[in-house]
């Protein structure tokens, strides 16, 4: 009896670090989930909002931004209930967005979801590589102008900083999974608040006494700006706003970091509310104050619009915060890609030592950590490829607009609504069904229009661009 009791105690102890499905025990809370969301949402999107509002004006700009925030929060609550199926509290866990779609919708929609999700995630990581290099170049310009004078030829290349960003990501990508990223997301969230506050302060200072021209309808049509150009820019601005709320892509993966009690869906809804409210407040302030400061000439990245001059140290600090934040945000968005590929390879080649074996490595003055050769090779290759694509297409606003337009409808609107209709058994042509479908179709039209505008912007950018040349 004593031996049996001892064995049970040992087994109980062994299982304390495991969840009910045998996986590593989750320790996340709504606070850490909120940090992941803020890290994912307040990214490079906030930098383009002053420009976006300049294209749309005082009426349409803030209105469209608020509509995106309401739609995103509403559909995120629907998606949170899809984490467990069939019951949102006690059902089987879905570890990824694709798993949630598979358990509820099945069929070809699983493949469509996978294509939409992972293409979007790859696009975001490319966009973050571009944005981080822009921020580091802004620091170099600021210091150059400060020490050499405002007439100095200060035009550093983006390419070395894209390479430096990629090297940092190669190291961080060896973090095994999302559960180990809470500290990085916390740091990144703090950085996002820091540069947002700095941008707000600089915008307020510039707006006071500013003679910048603003209008209710945005950029006025004139001899140098045709009605056709205004239409394309307005559509691209809508795409940029959609990109600003692109966290549904990783919502299920974030939810999978939460402790099983209280119920994950309740905690995720709270985290989504905190995340969306916080980001919307910053977006409205940054977008509107940035527009008030710069007027119709608002730059694509409003932190680079303060002349790179004085106070140079504050502009430097803000751009350092952006770079640090994007280092963490890159990890939030690439971890689902890594997990998907590694799980598929492990299922297909379970006997492969290259894929399955973890090797313990001890470095001087560092703790021991595990290295997997497949993880090392595959993740390093991924980072290098995204960096190369960023070097070939370093277009900030057009790229963000295209990613936002392509991802917003399928991942933020279509799949959450479709899964809710099936789970809740909503009758076809009922009042609720009509309301949900109206929202669905409206968002589809908006996303298609924004995608067309962003593609036109990319085509325009490519006309006079030569890759890998200064």
TrEMBL record:
Domain Amino acid transporter transmembrane, first and last residues per copy: 26-459
Pfam families, sorted: Aa_trans
Molecular function terms, GO-annotated: symporter activity
Keyword annotations: Amino-acid transport, Cell membrane, Membrane, Symport, Transmembrane, Transmembrane helix, Transport
Any GO BP: amino acid transport
Source domain of life: Eukaryota
A Gene Ontology term for the protein's cellular component: plasma membrane
InterPro entries tied to this protein: AA_transpt_TM (IPR013057)
Cellular compartments annotated: Cell membrane
Transmembrane parts of this sequence: 33-53, 59-83, 118-139, 159-176, 183-204, 273-292, 312-333, 376-396, 402-422, 434-459
Keyword Transmembrane helix attached: yes
Family statement drawn from the similarity comment of this UniProt entry: Belongs to the amino acid/polyamine transporter 2 family. Amino acid/auxin permease (AAAP) (TC 2.A.18.2) subfamily.
Annotated protein name in UniProt: Amino acid transporter transmembrane domain-containing protein
